[in-house]
Amino acid sequence: MDPGKVAQLSAENAAQLQEGINLLLSRWSALQMAVENEWGGRDSRLKSQQLAADIFSWLTQSKEPLYIDDLENMLDEFMLSLNTEIADGSVEEIAEKLMVMHEECLEGDYKSIQILKETNPPRGVVPHIRQDDSSDDDNNDDDGSIGDDDSSEMVVDAPKSQSNMNNNDMMVDEPRPNTAAEAEDGWTVVASKRNKGRRN
């Protein structure tokens, strides 16, 4: 599409786009987690519905050319309004899918929307996001980091039950009880401290 020209959707295409936006946002696990946990307050779900309306309005009623950076900023700012900072790259991914979906609808092509309809939303997948709660001093106790880097916030990683099922994750360098042989060879066995009080 020529960036200098803003194409308009037909009524049918616009309806398909609106449905596609809702489907895509319902499958954005970072957003759904923030909504379900009400990180943005009791009206988090209403806010997410308003986001869908705002995106639809931006895509269909903007008189200016549409740039993906603007959409990414909109998504970022919205997630921050839910006290959630995204660190898993999903903002860029969602923005790209929305732009592609809009382009397809302009051409009367609903392929990506159809794929969303046919796939079930993922269950139990937790993205790398964090709840941005600067007032909680407890977050800084676990590690000795200073400043506002990722490790000083509440980082939500994949559920432990999933990683524990993988045998490779269980193979950690733990000191063996019998260390006499190593000591005789001049080796000193020191318990690893890297897993204590820190999250990777």
Automatic annotation (TrEMBL):
Record carries keyword rRNA processing: yes
Biased composition (Acidic residues): 134-152
InterPro entries: Pre-rRNA_process_TSR2 (IPR019398)
Bilayer-spanning residue ranges: none
Gene Ontology process terms (BP): rRNA processing
Alphabetical keyword list: rRNA processing
UniProt superkingdom: Eukaryota
Disordered: region residues: 118-200
Bias kind Polar residues: ranges: 160-169
Family the entry assigns: Belongs to the TSR2 family.
Protein name: Pre-rRNA-processing protein TSR2 homolog
Native species: Camellia sinensis (Tea plant)
